[in-house]
Design brief:
Blueprint: H1 3-11, E1 15-20, H2 26-34, E2 38-43, E3 48-50, E4 55-57, H3 60-67, E5 72-73, H4 81-88, E6 94-98, H5 106-109, E7 116-120, E8 128-129, H6 132-138, E9 143-150, E10 159-167, H7 174-198, E11 213-214, H8 230-239, E12 246-250, E13 253-263, E14 279-281, E15 286-294, E16 300-301, H9 302-308
Parallel strand pairs: 1-2, 1-6, 2-5, 6-7, 8-11
Antiparallel strand pairs: 3-4, 7-9, 9-10, 12-13, 13-15, 14-15, 15-16
Helix pairs in contact: 2-7, 6-8
Length: 318
């Protein structure tokens, strides 16, 4: 914690509502608590059944808030007057929103004294929407970042308060970028709160040019399409790590690809090309697969994998 955070904790705590759902949002909630703000209530998506046993699981934000003795509300919608009144009755100075999962109606946006601030995992207006982290890597962007914005009724269209770029390298995965942006969001949201509460924040309109939308991830995207270029497939492998992952089928087996590199070899898409490793032809170039996993098995390198599961040179995979 910095000296500024300590000063905020001692002299200027705010009455806050936090609205978030996944792991990404937990460091933001933790930062608000550690800084001494009064988080009077947390809103999160309802518990859902998952896994083979269909066990009901709390969202990561719900579980964290509950462990800190904070009231948690899980409405399916915020459109009805009863839920809107319950929100307004919290008398919050500000609501902090991070990957909550519901659009907020006007009555919610206007209830807190300083409105609602959103931590979004991209440099807006690029990658508005549900999956900005993965879509940035998939598209080959060389930079991502965090935008803290004053929310309005649009989808990630509010005025920007703070921006922090974060580079995307050839080794960046969905997981590593997620973690980096989550931590930057936690730091930046404290700074934004100081500016808003202190009256010196300078909101800026988003540029009209450069708007893109990051559609929600779908498991149907996970199967590798070998007619794509090797560059495109390699980026998707990194982007979809750890979820929803990428895979190919060989015989009756579904094999998950965890890491690969582009090699300058040409061959028929979906064909194993090289006896010295698991090199698969693509629409342009080829991929040398380094780490992979069969269903129900552990992760292994390609050499070990091929000793126990043969894919002959010339074989076609799907």
């Amino acid at each position: 914690m910095t000296e500024d955070d300590i000063l905020l904790k001692e002299e200027n705590p705010l009455r806050l509502v936090f609205m978030g759902t996944p792991d990404f949002s937990v460091p933001l909630l933790a930062a608000l608590i550690d800084a001494g703000h009064e988080v009077v209530c947390v809103y999160s998506q309802p518990p859902r059944k998952s896994g083979r046993g269909q066990k009901v699981n709390l969202t990561p934000v719900h579980a964290f808030a509950q462990s800190h003795g904070i009231e948690v509300r899980t409405p399916l919608s915020l459109k009805n007057e009863e839920d809107q009144k319950a929100f307004a009755d919290l008398n919050a100075d500000c609501a902090i929103v991070a990957a909550y999962g519901l659009l907020l109606p006007k009555a919610i946006l206007e209830a807190p004294k300083f409105g609602c601030l959103n931590a979004h995992a991209s440099i807006l207006p690029r990658w508005r929407g549900a999956a900005p982290i993965q879509r940035a890597i998939e598209a080959g962007d060389d930079v991502s970042g965090v935008t803290i914005m004053q929310m309005d009724e649009g989808l990630d269209t509010g005025d920007m308060l703070l921006i922090q770029p974060v580079p995307i390298t050839k080794d960046t995965t969905g997981e590593s970028l997620h973690d980096a942006l989550s931590m930057e969001s936690a730091r930046l949201v404290l700074e934004a709160l100081r500016g808003v509460a202190g009256g010196y924040a300078k909101p800026q309109k988003q540029p009209e040019e450069g708007v893109t939308y990051a559609k929600k991830l779908d498991k149907k995207e996970s199967q590798i399409n070998w007619s794509q270029t090797a560059v495109e497939i390699e980026r998707r492998i990194r982007a979809f790590t750890p979820w929803p992952g990428t895979w190919f089928a060989f015989g009756k087996d579904r094999i998950k690809v965890l890491s690969a590199e582009v090699v300058e070899i040409n061959g028929d898409p979906g064909t194993r090309l090289d006896a010295d490793g698991l090199v698969i032809g693509c629409g342009k170039g080829a991929l040398r697969i380094h780490k992979l996993q069969r269903s129900g098995k552990g992760t292994t390198d390609a050499e070990s994998f091929l000793r126990g599961f043969d894919i002959p040179v010339g074989s076609i995979i799907q």
